[in-house]
Amino acid sequence: MVELGRFNKLTVIRQVEFGVYLEGGKLGGILLPQREVPNDCQLGDTLSVFVYLDSDDMPVATTKRPRVQVGEFASLQVAETNKVGAFLDWGLPKQLFLPFAEQPRPVEKGQHCIVRAYIDNTGRIAASAKVEKFLNKTSPEFVVGQEVSLLIWRRTELGLLVIIEHEAQGILHTQDISRDLRPGLKVGGFIKQLREDGKVDVMLDKPGYGKVDPIAKQLLNYLELKKGFCALSDKSSPDEIKSVFGVSKKAFKMAIGNLLKQGLIRQDETGLHLVNSGIE
């Protein structure tokens, strides 16, 4: 079954001068224009294509990747507005329609807005800026530590609201924001906590020792450059550690502990030493 507004793997059933037709089931043959047909394309080949409706509401295929698929959220720019709604730039020739009824507040040309792509009651692909109605209101099936995709949604007093895996709402608390983020940005993250009330906390770094890995590598690189010795240790002041490695003392101590357990370094009253560095 062909999914409108999403990528599909479809079989080439007919070749014509202006392209190829793909098997579309109930939709019939779906045209892939000649400019997008692979040079070595043959009858019977299977192609990965995005299927949407053209200006005449006929199904058409493209190998281009739009900025959003049906069932997903994205931040899109308003290209035009008129009496019936707005039209969004989603990377395809035919712009994505955002009806007035799906705008919590009127949008303006040039503005970016976060929307969900869906199939409306006429069978056409449309967008909605009423984000909340598409989010999972029950407890999402996530686990603590799970790696997830995040779409930054909007700011709150507690931090940033995010959309997790195009499915659920989460919050990235201010204390867990380690870099500049803005609404509409897509980032990777991790599930930090699943609350009893169904709310989800997320973080940008791996929880626990997982987030120490880059710092541990940084420390090993430093030791190698400094002939196997670092005058800093877990007794050093937070300011000294911050000035050299740019991290908190807590994270630095966790990195030291990780490397000590692996037998890669040793620590004494003078500082840290790289094991088997040849400089003892």
UniProtKB/TrEMBL annotation:
Residue ranges constituting the Conserved virulence factor B-like winged helix domain according to the UniProt record: 218-274
Matching InterPro entries: CvfB_fam, CvfB_S1_st, CvfB_WH, NA-bd_OB-fold, WH-like_DNA-bd_sf
Occurrences of domain Conserved virulence factor B first S1 (ranges): 4-64, 70-129
UniProt-listed Pfam families: S1_2 (PF13509), WHD_CvfB (PF17783)
Taxonomy, superkingdom: Bacteria
Recorded family membership: Belongs to the CvfB family.
Protein known as: GntR family transcriptional regulator
